[in-house]
Structures are given as structure tokens and as C-alpha cells.
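Workshop exercise sheet. Pairs work together: one partner reads the sequence aloud, the other fills in the structure field after running the prediction. Swap roles for the next sheet.
Pair: D.N. / O.F.
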Amino acid sequence: FDEKLDQYNLNKIKTIGDCYMATSIPGFTEPTASCSAMCHFAFDMIDQLKEYNEENPDQPLNMRIGINCGPVVAGVVGTKRFLYDIWGDAVNIASRMESTGIPGRVQVTPTIVETVPDGEFEFEERGTVTVKGTG
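Structure field:
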């Protein structure tokens, strides 16, 4: 997926276990463009995974994707081995969108729906989803 990041002007934060965390480049992109780019990237990831599964039917993989937007705190931690990371409610909510999502689908927050240009994506409501650690 890393090759696609540059296409959308996005930034890989880290991979930990089965988590692939990416963000727009903080401070360099406008929110509408950032949210739109993140959604396009998410659909490209799903398409790439479908291609992989067609080529490797004996080892199918699946993924859930969660997207949110909002302010974060970014920084470098460590004194010997440095790690760039981001923190904040926006990150936590994106994580909850992923963990409560449906495999093979992209789950977004209402903020994403309100921010991307009208008609660029077709959103469908899922109904009420209990999300721990919010509100």
C-alpha cells in the first residue's frame, strides 16, 4: 500500500500488528482534499486486496478500514530509536471505526461525510453502532 500514499499525498505513520495507520500530511493539505484522498486510498487498498485474493485463493485476506478527520498531536518519541506518532480523539475514533467496521468495507464518521465533496462517494448509513471510549 505504501506506493499509493504518494499518489494521494498521504503519510504512513506506522504498522503495528494488523494496523496500518496513515494520515494526510499535517498542515499541508486542506481538509476537503485530505478527507477525499484518504477515502480514495481506502478504496484502492480494498481493490489491491481483492487482486491479491484472486491471485492467492488459498490464502485469502480481508481488512476493515476506519476513517475520521480532526485535530491531532504529532511528535517523535524515544531517545535511541525514534518513532513518529500521532495522538488524540480523532485517532481514537478512527481506530474505533476500524474495529467496529465490516470486513471489506470502509467505515467513516459523519465528519467525513460532511467534509468530502457532494457526490464524490456514495455513503450508506449502517445504523447505530456502539463505539467504546467516545462521548
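Discussion prompt: The chain has a mean pLDDT of 91. What would you look at next?
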